[in-house]
Amino acid sequence: MFKRMETFQQWLNQENIDAAIITSKENVFYFSGFYSDPHERLLAIAMFEGGEPFLICPQMETNAAKDTGWTYPIIGYKDTDDSLQILTDEIKKRIGNGKTIAVEKNHLNAFRYESLQRLFPNTQFKNAERQLNEQRLIKDEREIQKLEKAAELADYAIQVGINEVREGATELQIVAAIEYELKKKGVQQMSFSTIVLTGEKAASPHGTPGLTKVKKGDFVLFDLGVVYEGYCSDITRTVHYGGPSEKQAKVYETVLRAQQTALSIGRPGIPSKELDLAARTIIAEAGYGDYFTHRLGHGLGISVHEFPSITETNPLPLEKGMVFTIEPGIYIPNEIGVRIEDDVIITDKGAVSLTRFPKQLQVIS
């Protein structure tokens, strides 16, 4: 954690920024090892061009913060306190009014941002997002180990879900079975709300599971992920119940070919957009271009969706240690939905899948 803060402080020095206020729970965790969802309450780390940082959190969470190994000051506040005023006072003790402060402009809500402007009337606020994104972009060995374990648990969850596919099973019944088995393995949190969609509902990329029942002739789409020691996984598999029609089989094979092609060209130095374009071209040439309606993938780490975005317009070169998803899909409204998604890491030898559940079409009878 110290090295991460040191790198960030070097950026503050280079940019002549007096202090930074880090407020997203993901970035607080990144720098401190303390993960908390404060809901409407303030959680923040203040870092400075020189001097030690401090963490501010609800008083009821100060002991939990200490237990993570954070050795710098922890300032707890009561629900009746003005937490922003306390934060401001502590910062002013260290830098006075300060000429420049960096904040997470993409995270701060309008009320808190306007409040900080009022509390620091002569201070310029700069956006720290780019630096934070770049720091978190390349995963170290310890982060990769956690992502591998999260991916392993996601693979297990897909198998649990497939085992529950039968005539008349509802989407929510399958979701419940998946999450129950994961709880028994010690998984405390999913990366996002587990998605199980069957039949024509699978044509909604982020549909909501309900009481729709599995029936013969349906695709069943699973999209899920788990959080392991603060790091996320995200996998999608689509299986068929009863045996696919010729059109269904063509759609599936097209998505599989697009996904495997994008995976095969991922290596250091390749622009991110080339992966998206490769997959998109295959889907378009098969006649389904209008039905691939989202980006190819997204960064993965502490957040399930983080920098970078793997789109057809992103020139960012891939680098060793980057982790992101590759997840092409075809969604024909009210008819067919297929997506195949893996978590991948860029290595010297190319893109390697962290999620390893088989991708050849599985037919459940």
Automatic annotation (TrEMBL):
InterPro entries: Creatin/AminoP/Spt16_N, Creatinase/aminopeptidase-like, Creatinase_N, Pept_M24, Pept_M24_MAP, Peptidase_M24B, Peptidase_M24B_aminopep-P_CS
Residue ranges constituting the Creatinase N-terminal domain according to the UniProt record: 4-138
Co-factor(s): Mn(2+)
Pfam families: Creatinase_N (PF01321), Peptidase_M24 (PF00557)
Gene3D superfamilies in the record: Creatinase/methionine aminopeptidase superfamily (3.90.230.10), Creatinase/prolidase N-terminal domain (3.40.350.10)
GO molecular function, one term: metal ion binding
Highest taxon of source: Bacteria
Start and end residues of each Peptidase M24 domain: 146-348
Entry keywords, A to Z: Hydrolase, Manganese, Metal-binding
The keyword Ribosomal protein is assigned to this record: no
Family classification: Belongs to the peptidase M24B family.
Name by which UniProt lists this protein: Xaa-Pro peptidase family protein
